[in-house]
């Protein structure tokens, strides 16, 4: 090697990289989208390898501890519906207007389903580059305890969350909000036990003005699924006393397990973090954990029912809401979302949304008194469709994408980046990759009707326009 300190570079010598595996489909990233992509691909009969940097699958659902799907169970579709049904049957999920679940149970279930489908899995392995020959992706370069190795594949699925594969392959993309490239805040979560739910919910019912106006955020003991956002005045007083971080304006209690007195606290907020920068995500992780210590102490002192609260666990990785989004054959915008149909639809999804909602704005002050989105803006349950074109990047062949990196605008991302939505777009991306690999073509040239029929067979609701196109 040659070190060039003047230019700040190190010149590596050329080297041959051993091929560790050759498969039909390789999936980069084992979060909600990657899990569903790998499972769908395997079930299509493609030899599939899932590569995950962590020691567990599930990503934001498990490692980050974000254990709620913001959609009613009866509106779930595809693999997500199968997973929720199995979790509920085992007593590890609670369904109401949202679905709360035990992250440990989800972790185990995802692994069981993948092994049952004979998916090959590589944990503790980072994807570091794409192998591209003549404008077609041929596989991935990975790094692990085994060193730097290559995985060759007939099709590749990028479900990395940050578009790492698409970016290294040369696909066009944008990062953050159009205009200023700012990204939504990052944070870690904490799971807290010892909560007296009767006392907590009594306060919620007696002080409705202190909580977000959301009919689906139930605080009734009769509801099996509870999500609470507010305590506005108590948090404001805590900020004045220095007990609450200045960035925090309300408490978000997600994935509430009322029977066991457990809540997941999703309130820390760190802004101006680029989730693709090692320096930024390190700063974001450290600062978020500092905030969580203050928040737990504040809850014990000031929040009814939390005086005996204690931390069960914290996120093992930083939750990043937004980085890159690829540019594909179709660009999904906020204007067209909400009851817009597409003949190439691969999914119809449901979510509590409203036009113009940005969701976790990069500008800060989330939940503050002047934040109408998180104070006074009710969100009805609405459906929207995902056209196949948002899963196929421009310029590079052999690649599909799923999850929050699909081709969309910053505001459209507020509709599609949730775990459940990522799972469904991942399922579509994995199915498309498998069908392309098995028919010796590339996803861009795939017969979309064949993809739609396969997805319907997998239990995915593709919407009326897609079904009508199949009948023509």
Describe it:
The protein is α+β, with helices and mostly antiparallel strands and 472 residues long. 29% of the residues lie in helices and 23% in strands. It is built from 12 helices and 21 strands. Strands 3, 4, 8, 9, 10, 11 and 21 form a 7-stranded mixed β-sheet that branches. Helix 1 runs parallel beside helix 10 and helix 10 crosses helix 11. The N and C termini lie far apart (62 Å).
Features:
472 residues, alpha+beta, 7-stranded mixed sheet, 5-stranded antiparallel sheet, 12 helices, 21 strands, 29% helix
How much helix is in the residues? Answer: 25-40%
Shape: globular
Quaternary organisation? single chain
Regions with little confidence, pLDDT below 50 for 5+ residues: none
What is the averaged pLDDT score?
94
* Amino-to-carboxy terminus distance: 62 Å
C-alpha Rg (nearest Å): 22 Å
Number of H/I helices? 12
**Total number of β-strand segments?**
21
Most strands sheet: 7 strands, mixed
Percentage of β-strand residues: 15-25%
Q: What structural class do helix, strand and pairing data support?
A: alpha+beta
């Amino acid at each position: 090697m040659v070190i060039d300190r003047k230019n700040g570079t190190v010149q590596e010598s050329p080297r041959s990289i051993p091929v560790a595996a050759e498969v039909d489909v390789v999936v980069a990233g084992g979060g909600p989208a990657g899990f569903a992509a790998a499972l769908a691909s395997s079930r299509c009969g493609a030899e599939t390898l899932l590569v995950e940097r962590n020691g567990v699958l599930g990503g934001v659902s498990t490692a980050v501890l974000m254990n709620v799907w913001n959609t009613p169970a009866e509106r779930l579709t595809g693999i997500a519906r199968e997973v929720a049904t199995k979790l509920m049957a085992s007593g590890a999920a609670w369904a109401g207007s949202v679905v709360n679940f035990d992250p440990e149970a989800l972790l185990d279930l995802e692994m069981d389903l993948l092994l049952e489908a004979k998916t090959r899995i590589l944990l503790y392995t980072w994807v570091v580059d794409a192998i591209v020959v003549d404008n077609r992706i041929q596989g991935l370069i990975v790094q692990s305890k085994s060193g730097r190795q290559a995985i060759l594949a007939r099709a590749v699925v990028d479900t990395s969350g940050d578009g790492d594969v698409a970016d290294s392959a040369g696909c066009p993309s944008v990062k953050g909000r159009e205009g200023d490239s700012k990204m939504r805040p990052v944070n870690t979560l904490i799971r807290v036990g010892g909560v007296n739910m009767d006392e907590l919910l009594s306060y919620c019912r007696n002080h409705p003005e202190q909580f977000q106006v959301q009919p689906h955020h139930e605080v009734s003991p009769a509801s099996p699924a509870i999500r609470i956002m507010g305590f506005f005045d108590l948090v404001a007083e805590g900020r004045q006393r220095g007990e609450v971080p200045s960035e925090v304006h309300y408490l978000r209690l997600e994935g509430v397990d009322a029977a066991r007195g457990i809540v997941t606290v999703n309130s820390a907020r760190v802004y101006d973090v680029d989730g693709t920068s090692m320096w930024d995500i390190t700063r974001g992780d450290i600062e978020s954990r500092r905030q969580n210590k203050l928040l737990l102490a504040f809850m014990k002192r000031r929040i009814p029912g939390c005086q005996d609260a204690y931390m069960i666990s914290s996120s093992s990785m930083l939750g990043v809401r937004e980085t890159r989004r690829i540019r594909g054959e179709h660009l999904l915008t906020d204007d067209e979302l909400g009851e817009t149909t597409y003949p190439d639809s691969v999914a119809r999804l449901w979510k509590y949304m409203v036009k113009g909602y940005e969701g976790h704005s990069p500008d800060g002050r989330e939940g503050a008194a002047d934040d109408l989105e998180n104070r006074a803006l009710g969100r009805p349950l609405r459906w929207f469709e995902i056209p196949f074109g948002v899963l196929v990047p421009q310029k590079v062949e052999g690649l599909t994408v799923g999850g929050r990196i699909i081709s969309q605008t910053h505001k459209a991302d507020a509709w599609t980046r949730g775990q459940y939505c990522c799972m469904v777009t991942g399922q579509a991306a994995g199915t498309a990759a498998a069908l392309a690999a098995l028919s010796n073509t590339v996803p861009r040239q795939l017969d979309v009707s064949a993809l739609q029929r396969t997805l319907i067979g997998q239990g995915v609701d593709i919407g009326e326009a897609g079904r009508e196109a199949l009948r023509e």
